[in-house]
């Protein structure tokens, strides 16, 4: 079997769930809070149409 890609966390032996919470400070123009919905084998979040073409950052809060 070919080498499987590993995330940075796997290489360090630390899982994302055991690291705990971190404080992030983000500056921006607008914010919306949404729940991610199931979409096939991944998740989906709908954003306002006027955000199309804009850079966004997604932060998981729980």
Notable characteristics:
2 strands; single chain; little secondary structure; 8% helix; 1 helix; two-stranded antiparallel sheet; flat; 62 residues
* SSE run: HEE
Uncertain spans: none
Main beta-sheet annotation? 2 strands, antiparallel
Oligomer state of the chains in this structure: single chain
Shape: flat
How is the largest sheet built, in terms of strand order?
1-2
Name the beta content range: 5-15%
* Overall average residue pLDDT: 82
Question: What value does the Rg take, in angstroms?
Answer: 16 Å
Description:
The chain has 62 residues and is mostly loops. The protein has one domain (19-62). It is built from 1 helix and 2 strands; from the N terminus they run αββ. The chain has one helix at residues 8-12; strands at residues 37-39, 42-44. It has a two-stranded antiparallel sheet. A hairpin with a 2-residue loop joins β1 and β2. The chain starts with 7 loop residues before the first helix and ends in an 18-residue tail after the last strand. The mean pLDDT is 82. It holds the Pfam family DUF2080.
């Amino acid at each position: 079997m070919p080498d499987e890609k590993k995330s940075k966390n796997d290489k360090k032996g630390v899982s994302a769930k055991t690291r705990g919470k971190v404080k992030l400070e983000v500056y921006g123009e607008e914010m919306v809070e949404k729940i991610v919905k199931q979409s096939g084998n991944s998740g989906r979040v709908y954003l306002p149409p006027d955000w199309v073409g804009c850079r966004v950052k997604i932060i998981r809060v729980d």
